[in-house]
């Protein structure tokens, strides 16, 4: 069976989601599943591409026998809505060209809560405008 895990965040970045996904991938691999990961160049938590990954548009690396494909991403330290959306969609764009030869695709996208996005657009939640 061929499985692709698609996620914007993956080790060597630090954090609980990154660690859980790595462990999940390794467990599937141990069960005999052909697992590969498609992720962005590491940049979390400093909003800066890590050394060794800077200036690269695409990279394939081996992490404990796990094939990890890394694609480019727009990184900004700004907390504004527009830079965040450009960040998310730049990963979507750079990963789109990746092959579709998978039996199973698991996606993990960490994005801002819907109400945060609505509020940032200037809409009032729980009140009426006349």
In short:
The protein has 130 residues and is α/β, with parallel strands linked by helices. The protein has helices at 16-30, 81-96, 114-120, and strands spanning 2-7, 34-40, 58-63, 66-71, 104-108. The protein is 29% helix and 23% strand.
Order of adjacent strands in the largest pleated sheet: 3-4-2-1-5
Sheet of most strands = 5 strands, mixed
Tally of contiguous helical segments: 3
C-alpha end-to-end distance: 57 Å
Structural class: alpha/beta
Overall mean pLDDT stands at 83
Query: Which range best describes the helical content: under 10%, 10-25%, 25-40%, 40-55%, 55-70% or over 70%?
Result: 25-40%
Strand-residue proportion: 15-25%
| Secondary-structure element series | EHEEEHEH
> Which stretches are low in confidence, meaning pLDDT under 50 for 5 or more residues running?
123-130
From the alpha-carbon coordinates, what is the Rg to the nearest angstrom? Answer: 17 Å
Number of strands: 5
- How does the overall form come out from the CA principal axes? globular
């Amino acid at each position: 069976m061929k499985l692709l895990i698609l996620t914007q965040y993956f080790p060597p970045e630090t954090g609980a989601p990154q660690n859980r996904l790595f462990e999940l991938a390794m467990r599937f691999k141990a069960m005999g599943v052909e697992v590969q990961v498609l992720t962005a160049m590491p940049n979390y938590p400093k909003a800066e591409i890590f050394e060794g990954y800077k200036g690269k548009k695409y990279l394939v690396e081996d992490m404990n026998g796990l094939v990890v494909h890394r694609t480019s991403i727009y990184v900004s330290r700004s907390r504004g809505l527009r830079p965040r959306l450009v960040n998310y969609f730049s990963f979507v764009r750079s990963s789109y060209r990746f092959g579709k030869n998978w039996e199973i695709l698991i996606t993990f996208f960490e994005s801002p809560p819907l109400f945060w996005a609505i509020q940032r657009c200037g809409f009032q939640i729980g009140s009426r405008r006349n």
